[in-house]
Amino acid sequence: MKLSICTDVYGNLSYTDMLDKVQSLGVNAVEMTTGGWASCPHVPTAQLLADEGKLKAFKAELEKRGMEISALNCSGNPLSPGEMGEKHTKSTYDTIVLAGKLGVKKVVMMSGCPAGAPGDQTPNWITSTVSWPDYMGPALEYQWNDVAIPWWKKFVEHCKANKVEQIAIEEFPCMLVYNPSTLLRLRAAVGPVVGMNLDPSHLMVMGADPIASARALKGAIFHIHGKDARVERGLCDIDGLLETKPVTESDSRTWNYVAVGCGHGLQWWKEFFSVCRMGGYDGHVSLEMEDLTMSVEAGVLTSIDALKQTISQ
Fold first, then answer.
1. What are phi and psi of 264, to 5 degrees?
2. Do strands 68-73 and 29-33 pair parallel, antiparallel, or not at all (unpaired)?
């Protein structure tokens, strides 16, 4: 496995300054956002698609540093009704075209989450049993069979046409694919181009064991985000894992995203990466730093130190 960095953490830097910063940390691969919800500080997707000269210059900056793109990232909700879904669908399709032109074989995405019925205007993440109330079952079947699977079947053909081999879906809460079982359901419906961007932090805060999840995903792990989470003792005991407070209110939340090693110790991370490697994954581990309890620099350095000690090489 090799280290990479999700570069939005350095969104205040220019593209070239960001590359120099990342390389100064001893990391030679980057995961860059290209659409969806992201501000895309380093990849002007529309400009690169419209101007071959800019595209060539963009690639040259990587090549002269001996750096590579671990993945492009277009995380959004293309299944949302209305303007958001249309915007995010366009950016995902454009990202695939750009990936093809850059020779990037892997794109990180989210599955999207539709509304609960035709005509609804708000995405509906259904997490309760479909046994009751009785409208849950039909809503979930509508989301999967009428919206998600048709969209993804068409999108997979677009990926194949542009020689993108892997779509790594992040198991993000509030998306239709949020755990191994839902990822495998989509994969069974649309084919093996779809796999998991295994971000252990999301599974941690939903009460799952990412090590067990990695075993269940053997052969279907396409990417890994190096990101930790901490369930806050005392607070979680009172209110449970469902948390709606803003991430900025870290002192009163029942869980928080933290630098790698600040939620789970190095022994845990060694076992996690070992199991991923046993399951056939030997790609990039991309640091995603979202710890608001420390500075960006401290969080990045803490995480890199932990990851360098634990990834399976």
1. -130, 140
2. parallel
Residue type at 40 in one-letter notation: C
Residues 177/110, Cβ–Cβ less than 8 Å: yes
Please provide residue 170's backbone torsions phi and psi, each rounded to the nearest 5 degrees: -80, 130
pLDDT tens track for 128-186 = 899 999 999 999 999 999 999 999 999 999 999 999 999 999 999 999 999 999 999 99
User: How does pLDDT run across 89-102, given as a tens digit for each residue?
Assistant: 999 999 999 999 99
Residue appearing with tokens 């009172």: 238
Name the maximum alpha-carbon separation found in the chain: 60
Residues 6+ apart with CB under 8 A from 91: 34, 35, 36, 45, 74, 76
Asked whether the CA dihedral 167, 110, 312, 15 is positive or negative, the reply is: positive
| 195 phi and psi angles, rounded to 5 deg | -145, -165
